[in-house]
Specification:
CATH superfamily of the largest domain: Nucleotide-binding domain of ferredoxin-NADP reductase (FNR) module
CATH architecture of the largest domain: 3-Layer(aba) Sandwich
Distance between the termini: 28 Å
CATH class of the largest domain: Alpha Beta
Radius of gyration: 23 Å
CATH topology of the largest domain: Rossmann fold
Strand content: 15-25%
Helix content: 25-40%
Largest sheet: 6 strands, antiparallel
Number of strands: 15
Shape: globular
Number of helices: 16
Structural class: alpha/beta
Strand order of the largest sheet: 6-3-10-1-2-7
Length: about 375
């Protein structure tokens, strides 16, 4: 049975009860990473390991009220939602529109309504993409309204220049063969501050699940056929998943244990400090002890003077890693696309070159062949 056999989908999400909301990071950690378990009982939803769960969040009501106050409206004025359904603007701003990231349309509108904002039009030129990103860093819709008070909007004009609030996709951290009608997620809760602003900022969905969901959340299964486990259960797997990137590999290990798969499993995990940020430590150590995890290589960047990351551990074990690849291992990466995935990819090329006795060009061909054979798989964001 697949998720398509269910009446629930992205267009018709299932309201899943939030059964577990547990902090994974320890006291003193600079991060807040949490483990969530949602019940799919009665949904007919089914997922494979490697899939993601889509979660529809709502905006923080406190931010909504501040925006309504800035607009000078009561909140009861009827406007169209992003899906063209008429509703009070308070509800539309809570459930339908993005408030954390100002849209280009909002900046354009503000620039035309407030002469003090005319310079914003320069940021909207295609060649000023980097300058625009720099300007917008940490700013939300409320900041723009407060910065340019001469830009006045009617409720209908205002929602027209906002973008639609989208669901967030999270790598599923469980195997249905192990957990039944449940789905697990591993999420870093986003909270930050912006210079010169006393107002705390936060990620919409991570804080929605942590604090504001009211005990349930609208969800759907997002299929990820590109990130499946090897079809042959005897095939070895090398998994690189620092931070919340460990999520799908927790699912992979659960699946292999539940099905009695014989393939060897090697996990590279990293984070800031072993004492506070070793996510699922007890589980991973138990998997090592029972043989369902064959090798665990950890990198805790802040536990020594020089920062050590997963790619450094890959180099340390380069000869063995290349040997696993030569013996048919699949190579998986999950997590940060901007830096980690690139660093891991560079390390993989260097390892193949060094331990395979290849030129840089031959190493590149080797890695390309892994991709063509679908033995090099990424789930990066």
């Amino acid at each position: 049975m697949s998720s398509t056999d269910s009446v629930h989908s992205r267009k018709n999400p299932f309201r899943a009860a939030l059964a577990v909301n547990r902090k994974l990071t320890g006291e003193g950690s600079q991060k807040e990473t949490r483990h969530f378990e949602l019940s799919l009982a009665g949904s007919g939803l089914h997922y494979e390991v490697g899939d993601s769960l889509g979660v529809f969040p709502s905006n923080n009501p406190e931010l909504v009220e501040l925006v309504l106050r800035e607009l000078g409206v009561t909140g009861d004025e009827v406007v169209p939602s992003a899906d063209a359904v008429e509703m009070p603007i308070r509800e539309a701003l809570t459930k339908s529109y993005i408030l954390t990231e100002p849209s280009k349309q909002l900046l354009q509108a503000v620039a035309s309504l407030d002469s003090a904002a005319a310079y914003l039009e320069e940021f909207l030129l295609p060649e000023e993409k980097a300058a625009l990103e720099n300007f917008l860093w940490g700013l939300d819709v409320l900041d723009v309204l407060q910065q340019f008070p001469a830009a006045k909007f009617t409720p209908a004009e205002f929602v027209k220049v906002l973008r639609k609030l989208q669901p967030r996709l999270y790598s599923i951290a469980s195997s249905q063969k192990a957990v039944g009608e449940s789905v697990h997620l591993t999420i870093a809760v986003v909270r930050y501050s912006v210079d010169n602003s006393p107002r705390a900022r936060e990620g919409v969905c991570s804080t929605y699940l942590t604090e504001r969901s009211g005990g349930s959340a609208p969800v759907f299964v997002h299929t990820a056929k590109h990130f499946r486990m090897p079809e042959n259960a005897d095939t070895p797997m090398i998994m690189v998943g620092p931070g919340t990137g460990v999520a799908p590999f927790r699912a992979f290990l659960q699946e292999r244990k539940a099905t009695g798969a014989k393939g060897k499993n090697w996990l590279f995990f990293g984070d800031q400090r072993a004492a506070t940020d070793f996510l699922y430590r007890e589980e991973l150590e138990a998997a090592l002890a029972d043989g369902s995890l064959h090798k665990l290589s950890t990198a805790f960047s802040r536990d020594q003077e020089h920062k050590i990351y997963v790619q450094h551990r890959m180099h340390e074990h380069g000869a063995e890693l290349f040997d696993w690849l030569e013996n048919g291992a699949y190579f998986y990466v999950c997590g940060d696309a901007k830096r980690m995935a690139k660093d891991v990819d560079a390390a993989l090329h260097e390892i193949v070159e060094k331990h395979g006795g290849k030129s840089a060009e031959q190493a590149k061909d080797y890695v390309e062949a892994l991709k063509k054979e679908k033995r090099y798989r990424k789930d990066v964001y």
